[in-house]
Each structure stands twice: as C-alpha cells, then as structure tokens.
Amino acid sequence: MKIFSTLYDKVMTWSEHRHAERYLSGMSFIESIFWPIPVDVMLAPMALSRPNKALHFAMLATVFSVLGAALGYGLGQFFYDPLVVPLVESVGYQHKMEVAFDWFERWGVLVIFVASFTPIPYKVFTITAGVLNMAFLPFLLVSLVGRGLRFYLVAGLMMWGGPRMEAQLRKYVEVLGWLVVVLAVVAYLLLR
C-alpha cells in the first residue's frame, strides 16, 4: 500500500502552488495556537522545490509562528478557563499541559526554547506561558530564537541536500512514513 508516496507527491505539488507562501505563513501562525500539523510538513518540501527561496520560507515560518505564539500566550492569559480548557480536553492534551506546567516550573523561560524542538506541540507551551503570566518580552525573544533555529535548520538542510536529497527522500518515503507512524504510536504509548 503506497500511502506516503502519494501524499509526498501531493505535498510537493502544493509546495509549488502560487499561494504556497501564504499557506505556509497561515499554517505557521495557527500551528502555534491550535493546528496539530507541524510547519515542517510544508516548509521542507517548499525549501526542496525552491532552494533559492528556502531562507525566505524559513523567515516567513519564524515570523508567523512567533505572531501565533503571541496570540496563544494571550489566549492562555485571558481566556484559559472559558476557551482553552474545553479545547484542551476535547483534543486530549490534558497530560501535555501538565507536562508543560511542570517544565515551566523547572526551567522557566528556557522551556520555550526547548519546546521549539520537542515532539510536544509548541502551542501547549505558548498557551501555558500565558496562563503562568510569564514575562512577555522574554517569551517573544526566546520564541523567535527557538523557532527561528528550527525553521532555518530545516530550510538549510533542504538547501544543502538539494535534488539528491529529494530523490532519496522520494525513493524511501514509504519506509520513512511507516517508521514515523510506528515511532508516533510508541511515543504515545510511552507518554500515556
């Protein structure tokens, strides 16, 4: 069953769409608030298909992700009980929120930097920062550095790998896709 190669081809086509930059920007913004799909899913193919614009794509992803993080912070600070709690419960993120609260207690503002790279959704940390009334300016600065490093790293790897990487990725996309599914299931079972 070739699920991932079909998806890969579709994503590569979308990455060259005339509105791809808008989609990337919008996805980066909402991913920091509620969207479950990581930005890398759009950023990586866009950087692969147009390596000359890869750094521009990383910049868009960074800026809009931080703007979304600011809104997530505001939601956590002002609308946690009436809006966020029901949403968190509806998507089953209660445990992830508990982890975020624990991490904030241990590491403070550095947790925002670490959260930029963890498998725990970034939105959990942006909202938690607002709930805990973290200082806003350090929150924004650390978000900018952490998200920027992540997105520029992804774009840089795609630029570096270029057409050879794209060919190899296309060749092994089914194996990689199923491997990610298995790892996600294992991670879920371990974190549960």
Automatic annotation (TrEMBL):
<dbReference type="InterPro" id="IPR051311">
    <property type="entry name" value="DedA_domain"/>
</dbReference>
<protein>
    <recommendedName>
        <fullName>VTT domain-containing protein</fullName>
    </recommendedName>
</protein>
<feature type="domain" description="VTT">
    <location>
        <begin position="56"/>
        <end position="156"/>
    </location>
</feature>
<feature type="transmembrane region" description="Helical">
    <location>
        <begin position="172"/>
        <end position="191"/>
    </location>
</feature>
<feature type="transmembrane region" description="Helical">
    <location>
        <begin position="107"/>
        <end position="125"/>
    </location>
</feature>
<feature type="transmembrane region" description="Helical">
    <location>
        <begin position="55"/>
        <end position="80"/>
    </location>
</feature>
<keyword id="KW-0812">Transmembrane</keyword>
<dbReference type="Pfam" id="PF09335">
    <property type="entry name" value="VTT_dom"/>
</dbReference>
<keyword id="KW-1133">Transmembrane helix</keyword>
<feature type="transmembrane region" description="Helical">
    <location>
        <begin position="137"/>
        <end position="160"/>
    </location>
</feature>
<dbReference type="InterPro" id="IPR032816">
    <property type="entry name" value="VTT_dom"/>
</dbReference>
<keyword id="KW-0472">Membrane</keyword>
